[in-house]
Specification:
The complex is a heterodimer of chains A (145) and B (518). With 145 residues, chain A is mainly α. Chain A folds into two domains: 1-63; 65-145, no CATH class. Chain A contains six helices and no strands. Chain A has helices at 2-23, 37-55, 66-89, 91-105, 110-131, 140-144. The longest helix of chain A is centred in the middle third of the chain and has 24 residues, at 66-89. The radius of gyration of chain A is 23 Å and the shape is flat. With 518 residues, chain B is mostly helical. Helix content of chain B is 71%, strand content 1%. Chain B has helices spanning 2-14, 17-35, 41-54, 59-84, 95-104, 108-141, 146-163, 168-183, 208-226, 245-267, 273-288, 299-315, 317-323, 329-340, 349-352, 354-375, 379-385, 390-409, 412-430, 436-458, 470-492, 500-507, and strands spanning 185-186, 193-194. Chain B has a two-stranded antiparallel ribbon. In chain B, helix 4 (59-84) runs antiparallel to helix 6 (108-141), helix 8 crosses helix 20 and helix 9 packs antiparallel against helix 18. Chain B is globular. Classes of the chains: A mainly alpha (145), B mainly alpha (518).
Amino acid sequence: MSDRIFAVLWIGVCVVILYQMWALAVPFAYEPVGPKAFPMLMAFLMAACCVVLVIKPDADVHWPEASLLIKGALLVAVLLGYASLFAWLGFPLATVAMALMVSRLFGGSWLSSAVMAVIIGLLGYLVFDRLLEVSLPLGLTRLES
Amino acid sequence: MDNISHLGEGFSVALLPLNLLLSTVGCFTGTVLGLLPGLGPINGVAIFLPLAFAMHLPPESALILLASVYMGCEYGGRISAILLNVPGDAGAVMTTVDGFPMAQKGLAGVALSISAISSFFGALVATVGIVLFAPILSGWALSFGPAEYFALMVFAIATLGGMLGGKPAKALLGCFIGISLAMIGIDSGTGVYRLTFGNVHLSDGIQFIVVVIGLFAVSEILVMLEHTHSGAKVVRVSGRLLFNAREFTSSVFTIVRSAFMGFGIGILPGAGATIASAIAYTTEKRISDKDGTFGKGDHRGVAAPEAANNASACGSFIPMLTLGVPGSGTTAVMLGALTLYNITPGPLLLESRPEIVWGLIASLFIANVLLLIMNIPLIRLFTRMLAIPNAILVPLIASVSFIGVYGIHSSTFDLTLMVILGVFGYILRKLHFPTGPIILGFVLAELMERNLRRALAISDGDPWILFSSPLAIALWGMAATVLLAPLIWKLARGGFKRSPVSAMTVDEGVPADDTTRD
């Protein structure tokens, strides 16, 4: 069933791609094959694979139970938050917050998670930014110091 | 004998203190990543790639680091296979069959050491093979025109689709999804924006690293949440640490046979270490299982898959280095690393940047020796790493992945996109889509489209140019064969027999999507 749902949704994506490419205005082309043909070919091939999946799906997927799905959603939310606050909060602060929450989600105790989060945040900044010259944002931390 | 002098130059690159240090670091962390269940070579290489780039390493050093991680993972996968009965990476699936029974019999040390020496020998055979064959193949590839290149890439995709057991539709769909993802952004031929939906951040296309980290680090984290270790028992390493002379002599031929077999399979674009180790194991079982000891802890059953596994991992460098067409997901990621440095992979690479190619080959020799040294005396240290809880590991992986992606373009949009792609990758993996083809498609997309358009520009739109040379026709024929052969085979045998590879991986309780992740 999961296969079928995915395949049908993806056929929708293929239709969007086909429409986008069909509507694309190309000022002038120097070559016989413009920028439209290849993506359209791919959309057709993907749709064909999806049709195969609709007709002959695999055995159904074992999705995790609700409590795990909630945990998964929380994890995604934490990672999205980490991504958007990475520059604003600065690497050390954002990382401490992310590591604390992710570690808790993976079953760490409050104490060990907190200790490890602080270590990753500070050590990560020192090792990568100072030692290995990968520039990392300081964000709010810069204003405070 | 040109090769020998080139190899000498390669060693002078690989033995530079920086590169030697990177090899050591790569081998060590690679082994650790390999032995952790869930994390395999493709994840390891994916996590290290942006770091190498953000640290401003020169291209040859970056490749040396990535190659050492790759080799280390292939060595590390066997440790958890033997001690935990859980393959640390996809290539080690077959190692569990005899490795774990050996460990239960108190022969864990023997199993670990004989698999280490088999890995060493497999990788050695394949690396010598690279030295011998790479220049020949790249010389031959110089005669490829755009039509032949296009056919070659179709062949690589077809092999990946056809070789993956019962799921050609999913492997192919994954590959096309990868290609379509790469279509997003400005078209280099005409300058029009394709599929950007008006988003400025997408006008340059999706960065390769964002896709790689999204698919192989973020989605992995989500999968790990489901498989939080349920207290699996690690078998303690006790007794003899080293195999004895009798055990060694009885497995010599096994190792040699499997190494050559693995190398041969590794060269094929699309067929990787998982298939190699499975075929080597079944062949060896047929040849030497006279007393029915295979599956009950026969040391030859550990030697065969490990030799083949490592030989094929090294062998898969050949299509990547000489043709610019990667043979597996992991080499696809490495090929992408080259393009980050604005280096065009392909047959010209060997002449234009010999320090990269030969430095990489020489570093394979060095990494192999380092790994053998690490893996026999330091084995107890590595077995302790099996106890690292996910509560420490996952935040570490997450922050290192974010550092790598942010370090390259300093863009938070990339970070968000990476998480979204990670969720998409997670859904695909839950649906048992192999992830290797997606990244292969993404890497090959631009090259494929460019060659197709160039070929048709030469012929002024006549598609027959794609089938105009004997070589191109042969490649199309091979592509059709690998795609259709399993289908015909199935029909001929009554329609419901699964191919040996997929049947075995399913029996071992490993999700079949792991078959491409080598």
